[in-house]
Amino acid sequence: MDKRSVRVWMDGSFDLLHCGHANAIRQAREFGDELIVGLQPSADIVVHKGPPVFTESERHRLLAAVKWVNQVVDRAPYGTSESILDQHGCDFCVHGGEW
């Protein structure tokens, strides 16, 4: 019998992707078999943090290139809900120290 993959959700703005982001992503990936990263839209980032430096498309491409990321979900809401986890088949969510 095949074991089901454990899917982990992590979301954030990931503007100016840096080694702290990469380390958090690496650690998140260690909790499961697949890491799904939700990318928050620029409009939400403006409200909560200030204007982003990179566009959503640039941030998506940067995240997609990270070897521990299996999938990038665009326009993820600012704040994770059980419905988002269910929608993407994720078993649980991880967050960095900011929250």
TrEMBL record:
- Identify the metabolic or biological route this protein is part of: Phospholipid metabolism; phosphatidylethanolamine biosynthesis; phosphatidylethanolamine from ethanolamine: step 2/3; Lipid metabolism
Q: What are the Cytidyltransferase-like domain coordinates in residue numbering?
A: 10-98
InterPro entries for the chain: Cyt_trans-like, Ect1/PCYT2, Rossmann-like_a/b/a_fold
Q: What class of enzyme is it?
A: transferase
Provide any one GO MF term from the record: nucleotidyltransferase activity
The alphabetical list of record keywords is: Lipid biosynthesis, Lipid metabolism, Nucleotidyltransferase, Phospholipid biosynthesis, Phospholipid metabolism, Transferase
Q: What is its EC number?
A: 2.7.7.14
Give the matching Gene3D superfamilies: HUPs
Does the UniProt entry include the keyword Kinase?
Answer: no
PANTHER family linked = ETHANOLAMINE-PHOSPHATE CYTIDYLYLTRANSFERASE
Which family does the entry's similarity section mention?
Answer: Belongs to the cytidylyltransferase family.
Q: What is this protein called?
A: ethanolamine-phosphate cytidylyltransferase
